[in-house]
Amino acid sequence: MRALSLTAIGFTAILTGCASIVGEREQAVTINSTPDDAQVTITDERSKEIHSGETPVTVQLKKSDGSYFGGKTYTVDVSKTGFESREILIESRPNGWYVAGNLVFGGLIGWLVVDPMTGAMYNLRPDSIDVALGDEVSLDSEGGRVLRVALVKDVPADARDQMEYIGRL
After folding, report:
1. Which residue from 138, 136, 104, 106 is spatially nearest to 120, judged by alpha carbons?
2. Which residues have C-beta within 8 Å of that of residue 116, sequence separation ≥ 6?
3. How far apart are CA 121 and CA 114, in angstroms?
4. Which whole number is the average pLDDT over 83-97?
5. Which strands form 122-125's sheet, in the order they lie side by side?
6. What is the pTM of this model?
7. Could you give the domains of the chain?
8. What is the DSSP letter of 134?
9. C-alpha angle with apex 67: 64 to 72, nearest 5 degrees?
10. How far apart are CA 124 and CA 78, in angstroms?
11. What percent of the chain has pLDDT over 90?
12. How far apart are CA 65 and CA 48, in angstroms?
């Protein structure tokens, strides 16, 4: 009976991957923006829309695309009317449990079969996104950008260091 138990434990250890034991197939990613209530659209590497909503938000994203060694990649678009939009890339990368843990616990089966099939071998980076949408952009009545021109002497002295030189006209 003892030999059978030891054999079952050994067989189980051989057929498991370390990252699959301690990891998850999905990961929470938090997205914040300044200002709040910006529109967020998340698409995957196949341009499939995964999530649409407003900041702040936390979403559960899959780490694997379901294929062998297939990590996910996401594009996060953050926008708000009157502000410049931002695009952030989220990528999957092998985690420490996959890289080092399989040396101790999972072996080749964990490294080459179990963890690559479950997606638990990956972590999504970044897992927290804080987006500053930048300065407010002036728009005309048709949604086009407006360039405001002022004489330097009319700009308050404490705001002049924020000005950008674009050349002589």
Report:
1. 106
2. 68, 69
3. 9
4. 84
5. 49-54, 39-44, 73-79, 86-94, 122-125
6. 0.63
7. 2-133 (2.60.40)
8. -
9. 30
10. 18
11. 30
12. 12
